[in-house]
Amino acid sequence: MKLIGISAYYHDSAAALIEEGVIVAAAQEERFSRIKHDSRFPHGALRYCLSKVTGGLGAVDYIVFYEKPFLKFERLLETGIIRAPKGFPYFKKIMSSWMGGKLFQEDNLLQELSAYYPYSPLSNIKAKLLFSQHHLSHAASAFYPSPFAEAAVITIDGVGEWTTTGIFHGKQKTLIPLQELHFPHSLGLLYSAFTYYLGFKVNDGEYKVMGLAPYGSPQYRSLILNHLIDLQEDGSFQLNLKYFNFHHHQNMINDEFLSLFSQPKRSKDDTIQQFHMDIAASIQTVCEEVMLRIARHAKQITQAKNLCIAGGVGLNCVANGKILRENMFEKIWIQPAAGDAGGALGAALAAYHQHLQQKRIVVNEKDHMRGAYLGPAYSDPVIQSSLGKLKARYHVMDDEHLLNVVVDALDAGKVVGWFNGAMEFGPRALGHRSILADARNPNMQKILNLKVKNREGFRPFAPLVLAEDVQHWFEDLKDSPYMLLVTQVKKEHCLQEVDKSAMLLNRINEVRSVVPAITHVDFSARVQTVEKNTHARLHTLLTKFKEKTGIPILINTSFNVSDEPIVESPQDAYRCFMSTDIDMVVIENCLLNKEEQTVR
Questions:
Q1: Domain map of the chain by residue range?
Q2: 181-332 in CATH: which number?
């Protein structure tokens, strides 16, 4: 039995394929279209998934959309009526979009899918089309691939149809919804309101707020809790809507919000001041408190030993780390594609186990995401053909020689693009579409941010570490394969604490540990552990680097520049290589040096 899951039309469209409950393929549309957070129907991702199916879409048993459009329309309609006449201009704009097509999403889907059924009537496609619910899709994406037979499941995002937060109890193949919060009371939208206030782009810049927070102190925490959010002990809450516009206007906040903090909204090009750092620290602290209370309550009402997390707020790896360190659960597993892209996978899994009542198999306490390496891979002949068309100069090497050359280059301070195996599913590069560098280099954070990534200088970089060495370098962590947990660098590797009174720009490049390029200003790091059985080649590279330097750690950042999706193809990798100060690129067994390229 084969099922295709689809998420589309809001942000981060994606497609996923499962066969007999096994995850076969999954990818985000942005990687193919090269449009970041592409929300259109995921034709590129779907074509990739169908390349794994003999007989194409005709051989697929069900196609599952990740939410119920009419429920979302009901919420928009009801909200517009309640907020009239104040929000009428925004309501009119939204309704125009829906009446222009979104309301009839089933028809839209059938028309898009008909291109893959050239000789079949729409009624045949319609018989295969199912609709999940948004937060059920999130919960399914977290629980079913997890290594747990039973778990508490929490889903937290901006909003689905009505739900913004959900608690489920997963048992074998069943997912039982227990409690939920509804729009407009949303932790995701609260965090996005502060993202907007700080001058970053909503649904894109939230991780910038998280990265900025350690430079500040949470001195506005009480102001937020006293005025903006009424937080209960069980993690339930209500927002004070007099400070927000997101429920009836395109802007997230209003004049009442600005008056509360006595500062105007930051424009994206304005210099970041200490006030902005403190605001970021304050909303991050509140987010952590809310998530901790929800997790405690989920533990109380399920009595489960394990926890699964999904939804866009599940990508807040600092809050995830706080939940881990509370030790209320024996184990935590977070869906690596926690946002709406992962909803495509969750929709297919929910239909398979819930709607079709197919059994679930949990094997050897390992998750079923295959390292999240679920996207396209390229053979050496295809790569060499692509590079030839680009007039690129490259060397073909065996693994032993190539890895030795790369280790020497990293040790010499070079920046290496690393393109290997199947592309990752989710927002993180996990060593298959990555940029690698030496974490010991005190200048590497500045080099990567300014000369390679073209992004804000305060942004931290994450470490790759050998799984067998993680407990020697980082606190309270045994495994973190998906870069979704933040923890502290062990004190024995840290240097004297820096002066907290210094200004932001003076603190960014301070040497805080023996691996300064991955040690954030608060001595934290967003860790990815590398196991030999999941990524043998990357494990070998790290092992060779450790043998040469004594350090089992490398910087890992995504293979892209700011405002572009992560590279998908060899052509994407070459273009990114040539437009940045990356020194060397490895594309499978092809090695390219910048100084040898003649076509610029």
A1: 2-67+101-145+339-368, 181-332, 380-596
A2: 3.30.420.40
- Whether 93 contacts 308, CB under 8 Å: no
Calculate the CA 294 to chain-centre distance: 21
Question: Which helix (H) or strand (E) element contains residue 2?
Answer: strand 2-7
How many CB atoms are located within 10 Å of the residue 248 CB? 21
Residues of the chain with pLDDT under 70: 70, 72-104, 248-250, 364, 496-506, 599-600
CA dihedral 170, 175, 178, 181 (to 10 degrees): 110
Q: Which residue intervals of 179-254 are DSSP H helices?
A: 187-197, 206-212, 221-227
Distance (Å, rounded) from C-alpha 473 to C-alpha 412? 23
> Residue 129: helix, strand or coil by DSSP?
strand
Contact 291, 316 (CB under 8 A): yes
Q: Which of 325, 579, 538 is nearest to 433 (CA)?
A: 538
- 88-99 and 69-83 helices, crossing angle to 10°: 160
- Contact call for residues 128 and 114 (beta carbons, < 8 A): no
Provide the strand spans (E) within 118-161: 129-131, 150-156
Are 164 and 156 in contact by the 8 Å Cβ rule? The answer is yes
Counting other chains too, the contacts that 98-101 makes at CB distance below 8 Å and 24 or more residues apart are 98/73
**Gap between the Cα atoms of 300 and 152, Å rounded:** 10
Which of 545, 577, 346, 592 lies closest to 438 in space, CA to CA? 545
Query: How far is the CA of 37 from the CAs of 238, 472, 566, 568, 583, in angstroms?
Result: 29, 37, 11, 14, 28
CA 112 to chain centre: 27
Torsion of CA 343, 349, 354, 356, to 10 degrees: 130
Amino acid at 121: P
The reply to whether CATH 3.30.930.10 applies to domain 380-596 is no
pLDDT at 117: 84
The Cα-based distances of 50 to 207, 233, 423 in angstroms read 32, 47, 16
Tokens of 306: 């394990």
Instruction: Say how far apart CA 298 and CA 332 lie, in whole Å.
Output: 13
Q: Is the distance from CB of 196 to CB of 161 less than 8 angstroms?
A: no
The pair of structure tokens assigned to 501 is: 């009174």
Contact 88, 82 (CB under 8 A): no
Q: How far apart are the first and last CA of the chain?
A: 49
Pick the CATH number of 2-67+101-145+339-368 from 3.40.50.11540, 3.30.420.40, 3.10.180.10, 3.10.20.340: 3.30.420.40
Ranges assigned E (strand) in 433-567 = 433-437, 462-466, 486-488, 524-526, 528-530, 553-558
Question: Helices 340-350 & 134-143, crossing angle to 10 degrees?
Answer: 80
Q: How far apart are CA 77 and CA 30, in angstroms?
A: 30
Q: Closest Cα partner for 1 from 347, 354, 356? A: 356
Any residues with CB less than 8 A from the CB of 361 and at least 6 apart, and which? Answer: 21
Same fold, 2-67+101-145+339-368 and 181-332: yes
Joined together, the tokens standing for residue 462 give: 């994450």
